[in-house]
Amino acid sequence: MTRTWSRTSRVIAGTATALAVLTACGGGGDDTASKPNGPVTITFWGWAKGSKDVVDAFNASHTDIQVKFEEIPSGTAGGYAKISNAVKAGNAPDLVSIEYASLPEFVSSGALQDIGDQFTEADRAKLLPQSVELTTLGGKSWAVPFDAAPQAFFYRKDLFATYKLQVPTTWDAFKKTAEQVKKADAKARIATFFPDDPTTFEAMAWQAGAQWFKAENDTWKIDTTDPATTKVTAYWQGLLDADLVHKDASFSPEWVGSLKNGTTIGYLGASWGAGVLKGNAPELSGKWAVAPVPTWDGKPASGMLGGTSFAVTKDSRQKAAAVAFAEWMSTTEAGVKARIASGTSSAFPAAAALRPVAKKAFDAGYYGGQDIYALFESAGASINPHWSWGPTTGTTNTAIKDRFGRIARGGPSIADAVKAGHDATVAELAKRGLKVEG
Predict the structure, then answer these.
(1) How far apart, in whole angstroms, are the C-alpha atoms of residue 207 and residue 240?
(2) pLDDT tens, 49-89?
(3) How far apart, in whole angstroms, are the C-alpha atoms of residue 168 and residue 19?
(4) Under 8 Å between Cβ of 269 and 276
(5) What is the pLDDT of residues 342-371, one digit of tens each?
């Protein structure tokens, strides 16, 4: 764990006002610190690839705990709204999938339980320190980290060869390569700007060195007009204005169709994207490869795009069992193998000791036998440590997503969308009675 990352996270978590918001509302539940006596049944909601396979494997190998699984839409596609509504109605499941970016908001709304009595320091020591930091708020542990999600660039190596393209290592080179793609095939584009999903753009800002959320003393400081964000905003606006990238919704039929017909020849994603491509376009096996995401200066750098954790909802009466299952998914060879062996997941475990298990379980034949996990390992080591999430990420994303959707229809600029996210975040923090600058 870098000292910078640790210090930044502790400043965020230790701020007096932030601490009050992030912990005062947190649920306690009736569970005790002891492990479940069983047999008990818990409910689990999630959407990550391979989740059902993991549940099936757990149920087949355990008699003290059984898990009922319900697949829900991904978080930004309605999953988080479903979880929030269930919490408000008092009928939430025991365990839910929550990405790191959204965890602070669920904690601040009182939707989750502190699991520190079950998820101990010894348990956390098995996992990537950065992931542990992202799930530790106000000095309390709120979720079991599952994976990290460093950025990566997936590309059609056959079409890159046909068009005589070099894999870009810098963003300047990426733009030039995008121009070459369009010139080679008027319908083809190097990648897609997802108007429905701000998280990819946020990962780009993270990679560039932006820091949108920062707490100092008793004040939240929100800054989306910093040089790094401004640079990323101008860059992607330029690509859109020059029609060098597609504008399809993430993972939509249109996007998948463009992958299959060769009019989209690259995908700016994360480590989990290897499974996404394999699952959506199996007929393209052997035609894709993975490269480090381009950077501004050619030196390794990455943000984090997503990343899953498992949290216990406030009304669960089976906290010990829920945490036991979450830890099995995240920290055991059997749990990781069950997910990766499904063939649809290429998760990069937060547990470093289990990455060789994931590598062995994932059939890399789709990528011509490339050692994609070695690439993910390097990318993970280059994650920019200066980014922290604030307690209103959902508000930020909703506002940006609304404007991004209009961009796809010829509406406002990316800068307008980011400003809308900034303004909505400041307003929401002020509404909660917090001191805010921005």
Answers:
(1) 20
(2) 889 999 999 999 999 999 999 999 988 788 999 999 999 99
(3) 43
(4) yes
(5) 777 898 999 999 999 999 999 999 999 999
Q: How far apart are CA 413 and CA 407, in angstroms?
A: 6
Tell the residue number behind the tokens 């597609």, with chain if given.
Answer: 246
Write down the pLDDT at residue 285.
Answer: 97
Q: Which residue has the higher pLDDT, 90 or 427?
A: 90
